[in-house]
Amino acid sequence: MMSSERISDAELTIMEILWERAPLTATDVAARLPDDRAWSLPTVKTLLSRLLGKEAVEHHVDGRRFLYSPLIGREDYVAHESKRLVDRLFGGKFMPLFAHLAEQENLSAADITEIERLLQEMKS
Amino acid sequence: MMSSERISDAELTIMEILWERAPLTATDVAARLPDDRAWSLPTVKTLLSRLLGKEAVEHHVDGRRFLYSPLIGREDYVAHESKRLVDRLFGGKFMPLFAHLAEQENLSAADITEIERLLQEMKS
DNA sequence: TCGAATCGATTACAGTTGTAGTCGGAGAAT
DNA sequence: ATTCTCCGACTACAACTGTAATCGATTCGA
After folding, report:
1. What pLDDT sits at residue A104?
2. A100, A107, A111 ranked by CB distance to B78: nearest
């Protein structure tokens, strides 16, 4: 289940780190930040606290620090956000989004073949 | 061109109205709000002002009121937001998003046929 | 002409977000 | 035992959002 509170952009950066590897301490998380988001440790702690409040992560005590782990799965989050986009911009319909993406991305012949393969698989 | 300022959820509601029909006065916009977002006129005016500030809409004077029109096209906005989602959640790749959506949506046989038709069209 | 209705502009105000500083307590080092 | 270090908690603070009230000017109706 996805709690209804939205995960912000900065918070998502933290989630990605925890999805890749958990549990981690706040310091560990800070050490794994991408270069273009080299936040201070206090900032990371604030974001972790907020994620705790949103019940997106949990922590358990390890000596005198916390080990954080995701509570929301990446799959759930991705599904949720994808649906949100489809609802907001494509009237909840999948096909218009697909058409838009296909056109936008200028699919290569290889992409098309790959998609056809995926579709065949689904048929069965 | 899309100015980099993000359009918020409430603001998007206004944009949708203007995309459907423009130019409109603030009062016209308010009258066309969906039922689940029956905001007061002042609220609509605030949102229009913010959209002006973000250069997402323009207005021109008509007697003593303004007529508002979108400056950003819906196509551009949709493309922008779709790309944002793909970048944030699918490493900028189209295929993973397609796979995710296809699985999620549980495509019907008719959908699949439709997609195949679209793909054929693209091939040529 | 004088009050009523209407406009846009300004102000309000709480909640979220991005980004961080500070503080009190608990452990670690000496 | 005392100091230093590190942790989580709390505080900060400006920008953005959602939602609106109010105010001064103008115009319309009586």
Report:
1. 83
2. A100
DSSP state at residue B6 = P
Q: A64, A97, A11, A2: which is closest to B115 by C-alpha?
A: A97
What is the CA A33 to chain-centroid distance, rounded?
A: 15
**A46 CB less than 7 Å from any atom of strand C:** yes
A1/B contact by beta carbon, under 8 A: no
Listing DSSP states for B47-93 in one string gives HHHHHHHTTSEEEEEETTEEEEEESS-HHHHHHHHHHHHHHHHSTT-
- pLDDT less than 70: residues of chain B: none
User: Which positions on chain C have an atom < 7 Å from some protein CB?
Assistant: 6-12, 16-22, 26-28
Given CA atoms A14, A15, A18, A20 in this order, what sign does their dihedral have? negative
Q: Does residue A41 register a pLDDT over 90?
A: yes
Q: How buried is A60 (Cβ within 10 angstroms: 0-12 exposed, 13-18 middle, 19+ buried)? A: exposed
Residues 55-94 of A with CB under 7 A from strand D: 64-66
Positive/negative CA dihedral, B53, B54, B60, B66? negative
